[in-house]
Amino acid sequence: MSDFDRNDLRAFLAAARAGRLTVAAQRMGVDHSTLSRRLSALEGTLGARLFDRRPSGFALTNAGERLLADAERMESLAIGLPARLDADAHQVGGTVRLGTPEAFGTYFLAPRLAELCTAQPALEVELVANPRSFSLSKREADLAIGMTRPETGRLYARKLVDYALGLYAARRYVEAAETIRSVDDLPRHRWVGYVEDLLWTSELNYLPQVSAAIHPQARISNVITQLEAVRGGAGLAVLPHFLARGCQDLVAVLPEVHIVRAYWLIAHADTRDLPRVRLVSDFLTRQAEAAGNAFWLAPP
């Protein structure tokens, strides 16, 4: 172990997270042959094979899995040490990457970032608002907003806020289409829904909860594009109230149809107490609490 090189450990973490040598080398900004040499050096130092090299990519061996847990703890310590030493400083610096669903990130969080950035000029915020889940163990984000509480991993999660959804259509669509008096009328109308095999969470599979007889004519992979399709008259869709509230050209259909979901605030156990991560976590909590019924009530 006297020849142990911390850069070899960084190479190991990059390869374990990427699963492919070329991708890991790109992320580290090194040549793939350099990365390969570092991995071989680490395996030689430890006297263990850490990866199975397969055509589909790199897969961790049992020894690699054991090393991964220790390597991530060492990485978290290295990341957190400067922040802990400076924990009493008035200003919090560094970068926090926040992964969110696209509607929450775009329509709720983005308009509120000015307050955070003004109060903490040394803090850099990377907002990734995409319809996907984020792996905190692979450091894809420092904080994530999910739609379910994670059941595995060294993660800390708490419910940020419940939110409600309803049925919406463009005013012009409702005026031109057959009258909707009950749920039984819904299957006779055009619908906009999700592309089923691209759903990043089952929580987005709303339509069976409304009616098993509904079959969308237009399937769209994200809710913001769905919103625009509905506004254009493509049909009805299930939309969050906080998203539909800003669209005067939309009308609620069958307000008694009420769907509830939740946003969860998720952090990795190793980094959640870092000052910069804690600051952003507290900011999100305050903003969600201040929004109050905006997440829950349908537009007037």
Describe the structure.
The protein is of the alpha/beta class and 300 residues long. It folds into 3 domains: 6-85, Arc Repressor Mutant, subunit A, CATH 1.10.10.10; 94-161 and 262-294, D-Maltodextrin-Binding Protein, domain 2; 162-260, 3-Layer(aba) Sandwich (D-Maltodextrin-Binding Protein, domain 2), CATH 3.40.190.10. It has 11 helices and 11 strands. The strands form 3 sheets. Strands 3, 4, 5, 6, 9, 10 and 11 form a 7-stranded mixed β-sheet that branches. Strand 7, helix 8 and strand 8 form a beta-alpha-beta unit. The radius of gyration is 23 Å and the shape is elongated. It starts with 5 loop residues before the first helix and ends in a 9-residue tail after the last helix. Keywords: DNA-binding, Transcription, Transcription regulation.
Keywords, separated by commas or semicolons:
11 strands; two-stranded antiparallel ribbon; 38% helix; 11 helices; elongated; alpha/beta; D-Maltodextrin-Binding Protein, domain 2; DNA-binding transcription factor activity; 3 domains; DNA-binding; Arc Repressor Mutant, subunit A; 300 residues
